[in-house]
Amino acid sequence: MKSTPYLLSLPALLLFGAIVIIPLVMTVLLSFHDWGQYKGIEPVFILKNWHEVLTDSYFLEMFGRTFRIALSVTVLAALFGAPEAYILNRMKSPWRGLFLLVILGPLLISVVARTLGWALLFGGNSGLVNKALASMGLISAPLPFMFTETGVIVALTHVLMPYMVLAVWAALQRLDPQVENAAVALGAGPFTVLRRIVLPQVMPGILSGAVIVFALAASAFATPAIVGGRRLKVASTLAYDEFLNTLNWPLGAAVAVLLLVALVLIVVGSSRLVERRYAQVFG
Amino acid sequence: MSRNGPFALCYHALFVAFMLAPILVVCFVAFTPEGYLSFPTDRWSLRWFYAIGRYPEFISAFWRSLWLGAVSSAIAVAISVPAALAIARHRFAGRDAMTALFMSPLMIPHVVLGIAFLRFFTQIGLGGTFVGLVLSHIVVVLPFALRLTLASAVGLDRAIEHAAVSLGASESTVLKRITLPLILPGLASGWALAFINSFDEVTMTVFIAAPGTETLPVRMFLYIQDNIDPLVTSVSACVIAVTVLALVGLDRAYGLERLLVGRSGHGRQ
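Predict the joint structure of the above. Result:
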């Protein structure tokens, strides 16, 4: 029957239509509404919020910070995650599985707990690393970590690193080890093999991992909220403040919609680029 | 395949230390006997684990998270099964668009989902209710449930079903006695992965949970925003312990690599 697949997917389609598409459309509409301290949300159609978000230097700086952090996290994750995936892949049987579990496992551990760990290590005077370094006389003031961009970048890199290792690992599984052996047999040194054989083949994996890490870093909430605090706002923590503290929902909605649109454009655009550049690898 | 050199192994050791340090530090500090954040040096104490008992909001948030994860994952799996069978077995107009729609919660920032649900639920009178939490969590965990259900539906050998039909089994008997039992491991793993993701979700839930319907990660997050003390480390240590247990179980039952990378080691499907 022609209608069978539609009937089968009907429950999921109804659910997604009712509580994904409608709320998202409502949020876009909300971003055009007016808001005042005393009058609350007024359902009119104005461009005030969008004008504010797109021209006010405060929002430009905040979005700039958001994407700067996301880019740094992506580069760090690729730089350190890709070699680790390669090393993991060369390990022998019991170690390989064990360390894969150790490195990918944190992905499933609460982000709040993982970020708390960074706050415990570097958080101000009571931070354990700061205390240890200070008692050894190596530093006089605590290392700047909490409420700094560096802190957010380091903690986010830790939180998102497994995604990069996972993507590169998946690409490495498609690699034919015979090609490496052939290169060695033809007299290539280990670095030549790495640079000329392995790297070009895992590049699509690194790039697809980069897209995931970038998207998640730009929309991360708990880590920048805990490490960055109220002083260092990114798009998602700013939207949170507008919604739950200032109560200017239309402005918060504009920030959120802009984040969504920017991310979709960046992710779709870079995936297209990657696919075109590596069409022969994927094909 | 050549071995890793000493330099590679040093790098590996540092990398593993980086990945584990923040998690281990939380677990160690949870055992401190002091009233402030510190490493337990000469003696260990469970006082901060007992202290959790004096904070009923953490206990109730824990049970709520457990229920929320179990219920929303079960519904997500139940909805995923027919959808996965449709996607795996039929070619129809809008198939790719539909799959993309069901996978979209992975792409949409959870902040945006949280805002959208907050606005929507407030308008329809579900704001701050457990029903609202369940509905939103079904959406967020559905991609995980669907991915694993789909993987087992695609891998299913149709010849077994054809054999049952030729032996006179009705359509519902085939579904009940052949299809569902064969995809059951996929369903169970899909449920488990969905559960973990629901149990850990904080970004979206922080928008829609009201006092009284807070989940454990939300309670922890709001607590940390005010102050960081050993109590929150012992709560976190408990959460980490639950996750690690689930993780090891999943790894034994299904294989973590297969769970996260795809059906086999050979590329994603």
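Confidence is low (pLDDT under 50) at residues 263-269 of chain B.
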